[in-house]
Specification:
Elements: H1 2-19, E1 37-46, E2 52-63, E3 69-77, E4 82-92, E5 95-102, E6 107-114
Antiparallel strand pairs: 1-2, 2-3, 3-4, 4-5, 5-6
Length: about 120
């Protein structure tokens, strides 16, 4: 269970930064405007003992109309693991902050970072 709790924030940050659909039209100018939409994909989950499992994920990104706040839903599952993360983040003058909650294991935490131009 400890490994799952550590996966949720790492997966959330990875998906926020890398997996968002960046090719969509950008009507708003906020940091999260181009992230509107959904994503799905997979990979490999590697345990500390070296065991590996196939991991499938899907995410939906819902920025507000100005693109300065974002709601994220992320669901991932393998044969042995499942996590369901929801996050709300806001950009205030380049400072990103927010929170995440993982429902399956009752884990939660905070998110922080920086936004500049089209990079988060």
């Amino acid at each position: 269970m400890m490994a799952q709790s550590k996966l949720a924030p790492a997966g959330l940050l990875l998906l926020l930064a890398l997996a968002a659909p960046h090719d969509m039209a950008q009507a708003a100018t906020g940091a999260f405007a181009a992230m509107a939409g959904s994503w799905s994909g997979g990979g490999t989950l590697t345990m500390t003992d070296g065991a590996q499992e196939r991991l499938r994920c899907r995410a939906s990104y819902s920025p507000d109309s100005g693109g300065d706040s974002l709601h994220l839903n992320l669901q991932c599952a393998s044969d042995s693991y499942k996590f369901d993360v929801a996050s709300d983040v806001v950009n205030r003058d380049g400072a990103i902050s927010g929170s995440w909650n993982e429902a399956s294991h009752n884990a939660s935490g905070s998110v922080s970072g920086r936004a500049s131009g089209n990079s988060i």
